[in-house]
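Table S2 (text version). Query chain:
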Amino acid sequence: MEANEMNQVLQKAEVLIEALPYIQKFNRKIIVVKYGGSAMSNEELQKNVIKDVTLLKLVGFKPIIVHGGGKAISKWVGKVGKEAEFVNGLRVTDEETMEIAEMVLSRVNKNLVRMVEELGVRAVGISGKDGGLLKVDKKYCDGKDIGFVGDIREVDPKIIYDLLENDFLPIIAPVGLDDEYNTYNINADDAACAIAKAVGADKLVFLTDIEGLYKDIDDKSSFISRLTAGEADNLIAGGYIGGGMLPKLGNCTSAIKNGVNRVHILDGRIPHCLLLEIFTNSGIGTAIIRDEEKEG
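Corresponding structure-token output:
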């Protein structure tokens, strides 16, 4: 074997050795992955994400995927001659739009199941309607009625525990029921956060379309690779965080304060970002940790 080939082999071995303590530490731990954005609309990135999650399962993690479908829903809403309408980032969802959203989410869900199954891991696709997983109240936005948009009131994780116990990888669409059994669309970030809290997840990962968290989004040198939940709250209170990152960061700190050990914000456009963040010493995104772990 030539020296160059030997070096490549040794580098691969070093990567595996670097990953070993993380595999040992998180063995049998639950990790919730919120999957959406560009990583969902690009076929190659989609395959990479599914490969990453499948590998996590095969090395001993208990992964759960919670997925969105925003771009695909907007596409199909347009096909029936309707125009997508949003209020503060929430889709205004009338009865027809709800039917389209559920159809699209179901299609996305079963496609993800197929991709996982192709890699030799058993997966089951469900929505928040199954087994009473997600119970919701009607959500209002600044007092405005935005239709069939749900605010999660209660999570019953029994169906998830049953699937994990029987070695399935749960893949969950963010749809729920109210007390009258009406169907509601749920923001996928909210669903992932609520589910992570309910199952006592060790990690919650948000795959996004940005590199992570910046104190000043226009200043690339202000990138934050790690901060505590308290520091995140201070950034929010100080007005440093805005746009779509504001509710996402609020979900992150809520998860930490309700038992989730660590939350990661990753750029889903980077191939294998999930593995790079979890299995390497440096990581590539933003990790939000408990206040008491600051010196850890």
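Notes on Table S2: The first helix runs from residue 3 to 25. Residues 90 and 164 are 31 Å apart (CA to CA).
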